[in-house]
Amino acid sequence: MSIIAILKSYHSIYHTILSGVVQVICSVYSYDKYWLRSNDIMETCECSLPPLEYETLAFWIDLPLEIKKSLEEESLNPLEAIHGANHVLESLCTLFAQCDAGS
Fold first, then answer.
1. Residues contacting 93, CB < 8 A, separation 6+
2. Bridge partners of 20?
3. In the chain, what are the domain boundaries?
4. What is the pLDDT along the chain (103 residues), one digit of tens a residue?
5. What pLDDT is attached to residue 33?
6. Fewer Cβ in 10 A, N or C end of the chain?
7. How far apart are CA 83 and CA 102, in angstroms?
8. How many whole angstroms separate alpha carbon 98 and alpha carbon 65?
9. With contact defined as beta carbons under 8 Å apart, do 24 and 17 qualify?
10. CA R_g for the chain
11. Which residues neighbour 85 within 8 Å (Cβ) at sequence distance 6 or greater?
């Protein structure tokens, strides 16, 4: 994902929330075949597909390094904490916008 234009931003001492136009590029190089009973990988198959490119609106939150440091001091993994927060925000946004998460 690359930022094309920032449309709005909100700054506080704890974070910066931004929204704007982004370009998303999705590339697929391979896929896995799984055994149904064991869920083990049967084989990995290579493929050559053109990348899927599109522009869309997005919002993101920039957090200061102090938050990362405070999470690490509490023996918490910052990436896991951000991933969990992502799920909360996704649920709230789809509820607020009254749409499906895939929309």
1. none
2. 6, 58
3. 1-62, 64-103
4. 899 999 999 998 888 999 999 999 999 999 999 999 999 999 999 999 999 999 999 988 988 888 889 999 999 999 999 999 989 988 888 888 777 766 6
5. 95
6. C
7. 17
8. 34
9. no
10. 18
11. none
